[in-house]
User: Fold these one by one.
Assistant:
Number 1:
Amino acid sequence: MYTNGRAQEPSARETVYAKLKEQILNLELPPGTALSEKESSLVLGVSRTPVRESFVRLAQEGLVQVLPQRGTFVSLIDPALVEEARFMREHLERAVVRLACAHFPDGHLHALEDNLALQLKSIEREDDRRLFELDEAYHRILFDGCGKLNTWRAIGQMNVHLNRSRMLRLVADRHWQHLYEQHETIFKAVKDGDADRAERVMQEHLLLGVRDLAHLMDKYPQYFVSGGDGKP
């Protein structure tokens, strides 16, 4: 943000919101964690007001639950919402990768290649958070290169439960090489203009979440909605 040519510092509310959301998405605050306005304000060095406002905003996004007489909790991951977001991403990304094979700017192609190199370094370092960030950036580059960045942003509004399950998968299973190989194959298909291969591998890539979700629910049942109202 800029005012009179000078960068404007983010408000305490925006800073707190961004920090809490990051902690929830990267599982530093796991599903079911009890949240305290007082404790969060002390840890973040702010008054309770921006914390309270952030809790409300996160609740609207489905990341936090406010339960009367019980308190505020990080919401459990809802498998139905995970699958709905995955379904939407699969069909949109298959379409987008076909567009990319028809025409993709050289600058974005180079950005994908650079991203892949950074993914390899993250795998070598076993850095799950960085790999997740690069995974997100990789798919965003595909949408951006096809002039569909607003579509990517719309997907992001539905992705909060899916992204937590994806992050949990990276933490639970550090055999990440096949994820990289799928990204690399998609890159080569886009570079070669091979739309059928790109779409096929993209579908396989996004269908991994179906198998992974069942495994994660079995391994971490306390993190998932298992029926009823989904309350922690």
Number 2:
Amino acid sequence: MFQFVKAPRSILLAALLTTSLSAVASNTILLPDIGTTAASTLTIDKEIQYGDMYMRMMRASRPIINDPVLSEYIQDLGHKLVANADGVKTPFNFFLIQNYDINAFALFGGNIGVHSGLFLHAKTESELASVLAHEIAHVTQRHLARTLEDQAKKNPATMAALIGSLLLVVAAPEAGMAALHTTTAVSMQGMLNHTRSNEKEADRIGIATLAKAGFNPQAMPHFFGRLAEKYRYTTTLPPMLLSHPLPESRITDSRMRADNYSTVRLPPSERYLLAKSRIVARNLGFSQTSALNWFNTELKKAPANQRKELNYGKGLVYLDNGQYTKAQQLLMPLLTAEPNNLFYIDAMTDIDLYQKHYDKAITRLEKALQYQPENTVLQLNLANVLLDAKRYKHSLNILTRYTYQHSNDTNGWALLAQNYAKQNQRAGELAAMGELAALRAQWKLAISNYTQAAQQAPLGSLDQARYDARLDQLRIQQAQFEALRSSF
């Protein structure tokens, strides 16, 4: 449905955002009653506020993959694990970063990021789930907060400085790294020791969550062991091994803990393989030739029951490079065999859009929505097709409802802004663009857009009243955001 610019390979400083700041973990799942000076500051509510702040900064400065199909997949997988985790005190949000390097990280407030490169190295869905389960455990055990609290016992100013450095890392990575190193220079060795303890705790709790959710608990030691072996003799480690060190003792410990559970033999996950193919085609920075070579190589050695997912990825490569006939030859048989598969529906919708077969796409999407009326992928696809077909009113109705229900999804606001622009409704366009700016912590721009929208709306109209009310809300949000920043 949406096309994305392929980003160059770059390293997200997840080591500074996760377990490089970990504290000593207890050997039980229950957390101690800390009761430090920091505890009164880092309440769960405060963590959620920090998480919201970091996510707004991330949207402005990081190549987040705003692909509805992939977003739905990673959210579904993550929340399946959360539903089987203990000690969940925050909402969870899972998102993908376009980055070739292997990594995953947890921010405050249950926000967990996954590098697209991780899909290239995880052989099964259970292996990917094991990484998410590990990060979920970091959140439920409040490892980052407990680290800051531990540091605050020694120096009350340290916690504020660390939180400020974390924010700076999100906004300006190089400056943030320098600030963080300065803040933690005195206790770096102690922090490393705490990291090892927390990593083992996150492994232990993550394996329990993995097993409870129905995944193979052996997937965690298998994946970690394979990574450690691959990079054993290299001096350049992937970010995951910098932020999540893998000494032999940790791998052995995770293997022993996984042995306490029955091995689960699962068939290959179709959705995982489709997501992996989609990422290889669109989100690893491969050229058309490199991507096709990868798929052709994998097709030669893949078992028969895993070739359709690879052909799907190959079809996407052709689609993204304007070779619609070749794409359709690969994708249409897949959709015919599985007419309700969202990966295939989305791809064929793209082909219909490029060929201006609007009625065909609309009929397919509306039929699918009868079975999944609240599905975000289908709603956005339909709104996008209707917009391209100049059926603005129908598209506007879908997007107005969608943005109300999914106010943090930039896709909805971007399409809504396009809809208003095509109808020459400048006030509505400015308001939608204002929401996009707010989601990126660009408060001045958001307020400016809404101010202009209110000025362009008819005097005394419902729209003007709505824009004025939203202006008041944005000013309050801006003040709260700045208050959080000024607190450190």
